[in-house]
Amino acid sequence: MRDAGASKERPKIEGFDMDETTKQEIEDKKEAFSFNADVSRLMDIIINSLYTKKEVFIRELVSNASDALDKVRFIALSNPDYLGDKQDLEIKIDFDHESKTVSITDSGVGMTKAELIKNLGTVAKSGTTAFLEAMGKGDQMSLIGQFGVGFYSAFLVANKVEVTSKSPDDE
């Protein structure tokens, strides 16, 4: 094994570096395995190690909504028609005591079906990070949700989480 920073030009070390024949033999015989995980247990570990108070889910979901508004503002700078008739950007929080639900609604950028599957279906996959990378801004924009775990805080208080989203880029 080589140090990642080591020069590839260094002399081969007998008994340390593999020759091409050995590399090919290993390649021919390799086996691939995937990791298995109890997703619900893994989520429990992640959520409870990150958050000590259940109320944090409100902050996390409002932060996600805020990021959606920031993204739509950014897109609208170069494409003013992107907002269409909905020029007022807002976040609404509603609690239904009878059905014991909390709804957080925003008029932000929305996600396509593919983005929902990719971003919410993969723990620690952040749509915000992907957005920053696509825009070439790196860490220059101050969008909050860059780690991809805030959404899952909702499971601190809920057995079921429903996400409804509409992107102008998707049917």
Describe the model.
With 171 residues, the chain is mainly alpha-helical. The protein has helices at residues 20-29, 39-50, 56-78, 113-120, 127-135; strands at 91-96, 101-106. The chain has a two-stranded antiparallel ribbon with strand order 1-2.
Briefly characterize the structure.
With 171 residues, this protein is mainly alpha-helical.
Task: Output the keywords.
elongated; 171 residues; 5 helices; two-stranded antiparallel ribbon; 2 strands; 7% strand; mainly alpha
Helix content: 25-40%
**Number of separate helices:** 5
Distance separating the two termini: 50 Å
Multimerization status: single chain
Strand order of the largest sheet: 1-2
Series of secondary-structure elements, N-terminal to C-terminal: HHHEEHH
Low-confidence stretches: 140-147
Q: Please report the total strand number as a whole number.
A: 2
Shape: elongated
Radius of gyration: 23 Å
Overall average pLDDT:
76
Q: Please give the largest β-sheet.
A: 2 strands, antiparallel
Structural class: mainly alpha
The fraction of residues in strands falls at: 5-15%
Protein topology:
Elements: H1 20-29, H2 39-50, H3 56-78, E1 91-96, E2 101-106, H4 113-120, H5 127-135
